[in-house]
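batch job 7 of whatever, protein = Histidinol-phosphatase
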Amino acid sequence: MTPRRLALFDLDHTLLPLDSDYQWADFLARTGRAGDPDEARRRNDDLMVRYNQGQLTAEQAAEFMLGLLAAHTPFDLAAWHEEFMAQVVRPDITPQALQLVERHLSAGDLCALVTATNSFVTAPIARAFGVPHLIATDPEYRNGRYTGRIQGTPSFKEGKVVRVKQWLAGMGLTLADFSESFFYSDSVNDVPLLEAVSRPVAANPSPSLRDIARTRGWQVLDLFEHMEDAKS
């Protein structure tokens, strides 16, 4: 039986008051696991600025972010990610975000995390939130190592719409099969998917997305209004 409603969640600055991609790279740099720490931080900061400006491509992000995966063994990466979850991610998972997800899960909605951040970084975070499905940018993996390249369509901008439709098609579904479809996001980069659902929600929106939401009459949800704003 098809669930009546679909609930899609962006991750960074939407369910989390931080950017997991940026924080992962920063974590590797400050723990001495990212080559030249100063150069890693410079590139990380540059990518974040361009992302917030809506001027970053998936390929530009992958060159640096997926390169960090390619430089190490999966064994080491997995161990480091456990530290990352304990030190960086879990302390910033808020009751408000958990409750938002739980409301949709308890209602029987089909739920998925839809993020541009790669699946290596985000799969454990999706599990922490209890979200059963993850649509993320997939890093290519061959012969026991990450290659530093993207596999398939990156889950970014218009690519999020493509990936969601592919995921639903694999279950014999389309967006039109749901009485309501929600997508929660903070970023102007996610306007294509926000436009594709019936219930777009600007969650903790950037100034540019807040303006768009007001113009179009989209719901605005500030989950972290009592927390220090982490946006640049």
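notes: The domain at 5-221 is CATH 3.40.50.1000 (Rossmann fold).
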